């Protein structure tokens, strides 16, 4: 029996850790938590005081936060992985940039736009609504431009930067509906990543039955921005 257990909240960023484990073929146990009805259930707080996912348990270790978990898994279970190029690799600077662009710029912009979108107290013409929308547009345009230059964010190879980025263009759109069709490079990119066998296994195990928003949904909603 595997010593590593992942606590996964459905329709959440913890799908990244599930996908990571599948990409690396690391044995693990999976405990699934359902939203209650939208937020994380009390069962997660019983495991870690933060009360959010992902959380891993490995022996006596209980660890939260996606990047902390990612670095722990890579260091302990896959030190020679191909998802993190070494500093000597020419793609290393691009890898670092797009990894942290996703985590520190793109995803917060998506989240801010989502909260603003659902707040009826903010007028449509208010700066508090228009600024997050413009910021998100700018960031998406940067990704679209980059993917017109290379197959993956860091270059020609799939890396951890891509694994972290995909959430913003797929599952997060179940909360913030927007249309990918104006961004053909992103659509092609999403198709490449969601077609990976490890991703499909991860989604089937963690979010079985949840449609994968791969950019080609029939009747897709108009962009909210």
**What is the helix content?**
40-55%
In DSSP terms, counting alpha (H) and pi (I) runs of 4 or more, how many helices? 8
In CATH, the architecture of the largest domain is: Up-down Bundle
* Average pLDDT, all residues: 89
The run of helices and strands is EHEHEEHHHHHH
Could you name the ranges where pLDDT drops below 50 across 5 or more consecutive residues? none
Distance between the termini: 47 Å
Q: What does this entry look like structurally?
A:
The chain is α+β, with helices and mostly antiparallel strands. The chain folds into 2 domains: 4-78, 3-Layer(aba) Sandwich (Glutaredoxin); 91-207, Glutathione S-transferase Yfyf (Class Pi), Chain A, domain 2 (Up-down Bundle), CATH 1.20.1050. Helices cover 46% and strands 8% of the residues. The protein is built from 8 helices and 4 strands. The radius of gyration is 18 Å and the shape is globular. The N and C termini lie far apart (47 Å). The mean pLDDT is 89. It comes from Aspergillus wentii DTO 134E9. Residues 88-225 form the GST C-terminal domain. Residues 1-81 form the GST N-terminal domain.
Features:
single chain, 8% strand, Glutathione-S-Trfase_C_sf, Glutathione_S-Trfase_N, globular, 4-stranded mixed sheet, alpha+beta, Glutathione S-transferase Yfyf (Class Pi), Chain A, domain 2, Glutathione S-transferase, Glutaredoxin, GST_C, 8 helices
Short structural description:
Residues 1-81 form the GST N-terminal domain. The chain is an alpha+beta fold.
């Amino acid at each position: 029996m595997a010593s590593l257990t992942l606590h996964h909240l459905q329709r959440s960023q913890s799908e990244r850790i599930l996908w990571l484990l599948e990409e690396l073929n690391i044995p693990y146990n999976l405990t699934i938590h359902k939203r209650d009805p939208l937020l994380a259930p009390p069962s997660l707080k019983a495991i870690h005081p933060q009360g959010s996912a992902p959380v891993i348990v490995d022996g006596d270790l209980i660890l939260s936060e996606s990047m902390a978990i990612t670095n722990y898994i890579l260091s302990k279970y896959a030190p020679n992985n191909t998802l993190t190029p070494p500093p000597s690799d020419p793609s290393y600077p691009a890898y670092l940039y797009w990894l942290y662009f996703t985590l520190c710029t793109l995803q917060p912009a998506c989240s801010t736009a989502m909260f603003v979108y659902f707040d009826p107290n903010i007028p449509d013409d208010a700066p508090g609504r228009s600024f997050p929308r413009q910021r998100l547009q700018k960031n998406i345009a940067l990704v679209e431009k980059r993917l017109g230059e290379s197959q993956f964010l860091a270059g020609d190879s799939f890396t951890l930067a891509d694994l972290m980025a995909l959430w913003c263009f797929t599952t997060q759109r179940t909360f913030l509906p927007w249309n990918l069709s104006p961004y053909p490079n992103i659509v092609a990119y999403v198709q490449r990543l969601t077609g990976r066998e490890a991703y499909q296994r991860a989604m089937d195990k963690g979010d079985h039955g949840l449609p994968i928003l791969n950019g080609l949904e029939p009747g897709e909603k108009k962009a909210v921005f």
